[in-house]
Amino acid sequence: MTSTFGNIFRVTTFGESHGHSVGVVIDGIPPGIPLDLAIIQRDLDRRRPGTSRFVSPRNESDSAEILSGLADGKTLGSPVAIVVRNTQARSKDYDDLRNVFRPGHADYTYFAKYGVSPQPGGGRSSGRETVGRVAAGAIARLLLARFGVSVRGYVKSLSTVEGTRIDLDFAETHPLRCADPEVALSMEEVVKTAQRDGDSVGGVVEIIIRGAPSGLGAPVFDKLDAILGAAFFSIGGVKGVEFGSGFSLSKMMGSQSNDPILPDGFASNHAGGILGGISTGQDIIARLAVKPTPSISKTQQTIDMDKRVRSISVRGRHDPCICPRIVPVAEAMAAIVIADAWLSQKTLVRPE
């Protein structure tokens, strides 16, 4: 079971949902980078549960501790290890599911591959694992910010409600990370209805990378969109990824889908900022299709480890929609990919 991602900027996450702690080891960070724990904590706070009625009420503080790789507030060039203690795990919520495969979860496939019985909260397959990704992404953002690169995301749609405006500042103030004030209440009603029905909803998350230079990525197996796609698909619950106009390109003519190149730049961005696997210098735009949260209180049919038919209702503290909390995770994975691609071919200016 590999838990490492990246070539130069290498991220290894560890820990389980109901274990002692979760965290990350990041290798490949250049020395001399100022690193403030508050910056990491800010991104972790954007991901953590217990922040609104629309997310899991598991009220973890997600307080980060830096264990290595830092001296006098600057990176040493050695691996940076970050740990977050689990303080609010309630494994008893899963006592009646210890031998049961929950529909929509990885319980069955983990058992088929590793012979491991279902773990409380999903163990390693839980969204709790993403704590380490977000911490690593915060450091990747620091590297990218030095060169004017930003990574931001928002919830574009929930169920059948889709926004048309993109106000990223508003999205940061809205509990569902909706970027369109005109549909924000409609999105809230969709989630409230699902909660009342003991159900859940999915949606689409959009990620916008601004300031990335042209030339990042490679033209064959290490295409930038291929690596970004792998990063996004590694997030639990993500079942589809598209760049630029994505699947809509299949309905266009070539004369419509091509982005004309003018002396002062591209006239459009159907390609989503990537051509031939290499960045164009335009905004890199990706959309992630996120499935409904599989943990629901509605009765579902399944089997247990002995293949006996079971009816289950998943109790505990679960998100009625995971889209708002996937936003900071997807941002983190995008930042990690871009930082790694940059380090693979650019020499970072030595910090003063």
H-E order: EEEHEEEEHHEEHHEHEHEEEEEEEH
At the fourth CATH level, what is the homologous superfamily?
A: Chorismate synthase AroC
CA radius of gyration is 21 Å
Strand content: 15-25%
Sheet with the most strands: spatial strand order: 1-2-3-7-4
- What's the number of helices? 8
The CATH topology corresponds to Chorismate synthase, AroC fold
Q: Separation of termini?
A: 40 Å
CATH architecture: 4-Layer Sandwich
Oligomer: single chain
Low-confidence segments: 347-352
* Mean pLDDT metric: 91
From the spread of the alpha carbons, the general shape counts as globular
Helix content: 25-40%
How do the strands and helices of this protein lay out in sequence?
Elements lengths: L3 E2 L4 E6 L5 E7 L9 H11 L16 E3 L3 E2 L2 E2 L4 E6 L21 H8 L15 H16 L4 E9 L2 E2 L5 H6 L10 H13 L6 E8 L13 H10 L4 E6 L10 H4 L3 E2 L2 E2 L7 E2 L2 E2 L4 E7 L9 E4 L5 E4 L10 H23 L7
Antiparallel strand pairs: 1-2, 2-3, 3-7, 4-7, 5-6, 8-9, 8-10, 10-16, 11-16, 12-13, 14-15, 17-18
Helix pairs in contact: 1-3, 1-8, 3-8, 6-8
Structure in words:
This protein has one domain: Chorismate synthase, AroC fold (4-Layer Sandwich), CATH 3.60.150.10. Helix content is 26%, strand content 22%. It has helices at residues 37-47, 107-114, 130-145, 168-173, 184-196, 224-233, 254-257, 323-345; strands spanning 4-5, 10-15, 21-27, 64-66, 70-71, 74-75, 80-85, 150-158, 161-162, 203-210, 238-243, 261-262, 265-266, 274-275, 278-279, 284-290, 300-303, 309-312. The strands form six sheets. It has a five-stranded antiparallel beta sheet, with helices on one face. Strand 14 (274-275) and strand 15 form a beta hairpin. The protein starts with a strand and ends in a 7-residue tail after the last helix. Mean pLDDT is 91; it is low at 347-352.
